[in-house]
């Protein structure tokens, strides 16, 4: 019987800047990492030595020779659909980083192929794996939510120059901070409100570097539940001991909830204010995502977030991008 500890795993595209967040799971549970691959042989070999596993520069050779039973897949955004299709054609269950392509059509193609082949695919909308979000959803009904405001600032933009320079190229990444950061909060808002659609009311981007991606973005949406969503993302926060500025404000019919500075506060009419210490750094949830995705696959369950959720979020992101271009006069 396959278990989380025995299933043969491969990491593909390990030069991607998210990979160290996944590797943390191996310290929590002894995973059977059989092989890694990346066109950058130096980076692939460094991780292979760390994990004591086989190393490849060509993913196709890895698939043929190692025959992994589960893959954690990474690639520049423009290459993600092709990599996903390779895994589906080989019927290898996998996870893949968001946004899975440059437009919603990319995700739709992958989703259709995965559904037809019956292949498991999970998407790392990692806030879904936090106890905070699970408990909030049980405590507050979707119909109670009036407004959500999420601000997530991480940066500076130069942090990608050495790790994943393609992140700074519009033709390869498809966008900047809203594409990279905003998708998490679009999914979170849809998840909490039970919405399946959203109308983009306004969006504006700033371009404050020599690169052609947006470095600061704002957007206002009306969700199909009736709630409104305000998004603010950016590559602007200094990289000191606080890597990110992550702040939430959630308004309900009888409450006001805030998150920031490692504290979640609940202010509900008629009750005492609760202050709950917690990490506001989403990085800690990637290891949970890795282990839970493996468990769900082995149990024959659907992932907490899969291709249908990625398609929905990607479509909303496309609409935000289009509205921002119009408002910027580009």
Task: Write the SSE topology.
Blueprint: E1 8-12, H1 19-23, H2 25-28, E2 32-37, H3 41-51, E3 54-56, H4 59-66, E4 70-73, H5 80-89, E5 94-96, H6 104-117, E6 121-122, H7 131-139, E7 145-154, H8 160-163, H9 170-173, H10 177-193, E8 198-206, E9 216-223, E10 228-234, E11 244-252, E12 255-260, E13 263-268, E14 274-277, H11 286-298, H12 307-328
Parallel strand pairs: 1-2, 1-4, 2-3, 4-5, 5-6, 7-10
Antiparallel strand pairs: 7-11, 8-9, 9-10, 11-12, 12-13, 13-14
Helix pairs in contact: 5-6, 6-12, 10-12
Notes on the protein architecture:
The model has no long low-confidence stretch (mean pLDDT 94). It contains twelve helices and 14 strands. By secondary structure, it is α/β, with parallel strands linked by helices.
